[in-house]
Amino acid sequence: MVAGLRIRVRWQEGARLGRMVRVRRGCAPIPLRPVVDNGYERQFVYVYGAVSPVEGSLDWMICREMNTDRMSEFLAHVSRAHADEFLLMVVDGASSHIAHALRVPENIRLYRLPGYAPELNPQEHVWDELREKEFPNRFFDSIEGVLAQLGTGLPKLAANPDALRQLPAWPWIISLTLNANQNNRSREPGWGDRLAAPRQASGIRVGRTGRPPHGRVRLPGPSPPACTPFCGPPPPPPRTRSLRSRGSIRRRSMSR
What we know:
Blueprint: E1 6-18, E2 44-52, E3 57-63, H1 68-81, E4 85-91, H2 95-98, E5 108-112, H3 123-134, H4 143-158, H5 161-165, H6 171-180, H7 182-185, H8 191-201, H9 246-255
Parallel strand pairs: 1-4, 4-5
Antiparallel strand pairs: 1-2, 2-3
């Protein structure tokens, strides 16, 4: 608990979508061949998004540009939507995320991912799902068509939390989120017993709050030694090379 607020971890990332066609495989009855209109108009809109892997909830904001002011507006939007929670928001190293002019609300703290590691952010999978389901082989006459497609695709994606949870709910992310919420839910009656039961069945040593001490997992069986001593035969001595060649040795034996 932070100032009486429940802790929640959310992962934030922005996306750019536009009129350029994403050609994908399609089906057509034999002997017809699928035809896709192509376009190369470089007109884009931007979407800010933040997903909660545990709840399967998604917050988003559509805008015409992506900068520090728009990022501040998105943080304010998320802060108002979750006023009863303290949000630890994981972001990348974009310039608008580290700018001095960025306005971060009181109930949000930003945590930066390592550089050049987009694979660590599960929000990227949410954008891939949106592009795959809503924008394959779609040609738009104007940017307004892109906005209209986003206006229907984003609510449809967020309306199914079970399907949305399958995209970012990686095992190590779920464990981090549960540990962050431990101080809050451990006050509920019987919470420690419910959490400890499945872990005790798997052989994990559980503390009072249902969390392995110091975040370490101890499996059943003897503990390995701190270091493994060398118990084999001593290594052979290094081979030395004679300075005399075989020809000189042969000539000496013939002279005798």
